[in-house]
Amino acid sequence: MPDVRGCHFPEDLLYDVDNHIWVQEQGDGKIRLGMTSVATAMAGQLVAFTPKKTGRSVKAGRSCATVESGKWVGPAKSLAGGEVLASNEALIAKPDLANDDPYANWMVEIAAEDWDSVKGGYIVGTDVAGPYETKMEADGFAGCE
After folding, report:
1. Are 33 and 108 in contact (CB under 8 A)?
2. Structural domain of residue 108, as residue ranges?
3. Separation CA 129–CA 4 (nearest Å)
4. What is the pLDDT along the chain (145 residues), one digit of tens a residue?
5. CATH number (domain holding residue 99)
């Protein structure tokens, strides 16, 4: 598992480094999205998670959820557009689950439109260390520990 400045990145996921989002393929063009360990470390203790409602459409590059902590409120963006199939009800009820384990606590599942072409915009887990090191350096982020 790649580790950058104390932040862990499971190899079996895809990453949108700029938006600090991980993606797990579910088959048939369905994907699950969640926040990376960097996102949760930067945000601090999460206090609210509001996903787009099931059945709603997410436009590519736009928000699929809003995340709030004591020091930050902002969108969780998806490179893939599509229909929201499910939201993590446990995360809605207890947003700080993502702080405990961001990779076990996904946010939304989407039926991605044109997934085969969008997939190339993500970085595979085995290759994510270099891009994340560059991003952390540019953002002045010391790390997760």
Report:
1. yes
2. 3-123
3. 6
4. 889 999 999 999 999 999 999 999 999 999 999 999 999 999 999 999 999 999 999 999 999 999 999 888 999 999 999 999 999 999 999 999 999 999 999 999 999 999 999 999 999 999 999 999 999 999 999 999 7
5. 2.40.50.100
pTM here is: 0.95
CA dist., res. 25 & res. 117, Å (int): 14
Let me know if residue 133 belongs to a domain.
no
**Residues forming beta bridges with residue 82, ordered by sequence position:** 58, 112
* Domain annotation covers residue 46: yes
Of 13, 114, 115, 106, residue with least CA distance to 64: 106
Residue 122 has which token pair? 């993500």
Domain annotation covers residue 142: no
Helices (H), the chain: 37-43, 89-93, 97-100, 115-118, 129-139
The number of domains in the chain is 1
Place of tokens 């950058």: 4
Establish if 92 belongs to a structural domain: yes
Tokens 């998806």 belong to which residue?
Answer: 78
